């Protein structure tokens, strides 16, 4: 049996201009600020992180999971519960 992708694969942006153009306008300026301040050792990491964000933004499961979390029906348990069970303090204001 051959597997079929759920959605057709789109080519992944690779260059700074391609990544910037593919980002939502609300994220574009943050991306360009990050690339402008990166030196030659950091630029590959900056581009990689933003490409991963693009994959997350474009994944149809992201919106569905986000909605499930806000509705309280997502699988799993809250981090605060897990931390409390392990005797570790949670976030600010929790003990």
Polypeptide structure, described:
- The chain has 95 residues and is mainly α.
- It has five helices and no strands.
- Helix content is 58%, strand content 0%.
- The radius of gyration is 18 Å and the shape is extended.
Give a brief outline of the structure:
This protein has 5 helices and no strands. With 95 residues, it is an all-alpha fold.
Give helix and strand order, one letter per element, not per position: HHHHH
**Overall mean pLDDT:** 83
Q: How many β strands by DSSP?
A: 0
Please identify the structural class as seen in this structure: mainly alpha
Q: Outline the biggest β-sheet.
A: none
- Per DSSP, the total helix count is 5
Question: How large is the share of residues in beta strands?
Answer: under 5%
Low-confidence stretches: none
Percentage of residues in helical conformation: 55-70%
**Span from first to last CA?**
51 Å
Give the radius of gyration. 18 Å
Choose one word for the global shape.
Answer: extended
Give the arrangement of secondary structure elements.
Layout: H1 16-22, H2 25-37, H3 43-58, H4 60-71, H5 79-85
Give structural attributes.
58% helix; 95 residues; mainly alpha; single chain
